[in-house]
């Protein structure tokens, strides 16, 4: 099972349980990161995912996965590139949120004007 979370993490594991709120339990879970035709995996084992964090989930065809032309490398080799991409995305999202707040009055979740 492939699960993509709201924070962008991509998890692969064996689906062991789920409920009506889309809470998931994955066993033998790996987090995958990608960069320029390469990927790396980090083992997490048993993973409990709260349903509100699930963006996408789907079954993986293991036979077709072998045909994907990506080279697997060690996690520590790709991690700096992955962290840099996350920082760039965060800066871009913050700039976008600032523009939307100033021009349209929109605020991001939990931000200014989120009256609870």
For the sheet with most strands, the description reads: 6 strands, mixed
Overall 3D shape = globular
Please give the number of β-strands. Answer: 6
- Succession of helices and strands: EEEEEHEH
Structural class: alpha+beta
What's the overall average pLDDT, rounded? 88
Unreliable stretches covering 5 or more consecutive residues: none
In the sheet with the most strands, the strands line up as 5-1-2-3-4-6
- Strand-residue fraction? 35-45%
Q: What percent of the residues sit in helical stretches (DSSP H or I)?
A: 25-40%
Radius of gyration: 17 Å
3D structure, described in words:
This protein has 116 residues and is α+β, with helices and mostly antiparallel strands. Helix content is 29%, strand content 38%. The protein is built from 2 helices and 6 strands; from the N terminus they run βββββαβα. The protein has helices at 62-65, 75-104, and strands spanning 2-5, 10-18, 24-35, 38-49, 54-58, 71-72. Strands 5-1-2-3-4-6 form a 6-stranded mixed sheet. A hairpin with a 5-residue loop joins strand 2 and strand 3 (24-35). The model has no long low-confidence stretch (mean pLDDT 88).
Layout of helices and strands:
Layout: E1 2-5, E2 10-18, E3 24-35, E4 38-49, E5 54-58, H1 62-65, E6 71-72, H2 75-104
Parallel strand pairs: 4-6
Antiparallel strand pairs: 1-2, 1-5, 2-3, 3-4
In brief, what are we looking at here?
The chain has about 120 residues and is an alpha+beta fold.
């Amino acid at each position: 099972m492939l699960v993509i979370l709201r924070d962008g993490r991509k998890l692969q594991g064996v689906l062991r349980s789920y409920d009506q709120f889309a809470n998931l339990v994955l066993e033998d879970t790996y987090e995958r990161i990608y960069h320029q035709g390469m990927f790396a995996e980090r083992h997490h084992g048993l993973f409990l995912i709260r349903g509100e964090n699930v963006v996408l989930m789907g079954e993986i065809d293991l036979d077709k996965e072998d045909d994907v032309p990506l080279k697997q490398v060690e996690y520590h080799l790709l991690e700096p590139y992955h962290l840099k991409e996350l920082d760039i995305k965060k800066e871009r999202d913050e700039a976008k949120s600032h523009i939307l707040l100033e021009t349209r009055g929109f605020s991001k979740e939990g931000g200014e004007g989120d009256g609870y």
